[in-house]
Amino acid sequence: MDSLEQLYLTIDSRKNEPMPGSYTNYLFEQGLDKICKKVGEECAETIIAAKNGDPAPLIGEVSDVIYHLLVLLCQQGVPWSAVRDELALRSQKIGNKKERREVDRNT
User: Fold this and answer.
1) What are phi and psi of 100, to 5 degrees?
2) Domain region containing 80
3) 9 in a structural domain
4) What is the pTM of this model?
5) CATH, residue 56
6) Rounded distance between C-alpha atoms, residue 5 and residue 70, angstroms
7) Which of 104, 48, 95, 38 is nearest to 71 (CA)?
8) Residue 93: what are its φ and ψ, rounded to 5°?
9) How many domains, the chain?
10) How confident is the prediction along the chain (107 residues), in pLDDT tens digits per residue?
């Protein structure tokens, strides 16, 4: 299990078994508008961090974006595995074409 899947499972656990004082629970309680707002805010902060040229803040902001995107996926009932699988399919594309490379799925 990769770290993003583990984080998604933790977020899903908070959704299904609320923990008082949890920021994740706060987001779920506030609903879709709040979650989407946080995704947007964190994306803007990521852009600013990237333009400033210091990798440490950029790493922090990208981590915030990913976390909030995982909360959004969970809130919408979309499993992390669906995104992971889509990324795997996209990695098989050649250039900008819609063709996919043949991949030996047994390795």
Assistant:
1) -120, 145
2) 3-89
3) yes
4) 0.85
5) 1.10.287.1080
6) 9
7) 38
8) -70, 150
9) 1
10) 789 999 999 999 999 999 999 999 999 999 999 999 999 999 999 999 999 989 999 999 999 999 999 999 999 999 999 999 999 998 887 777 666 555 554 43
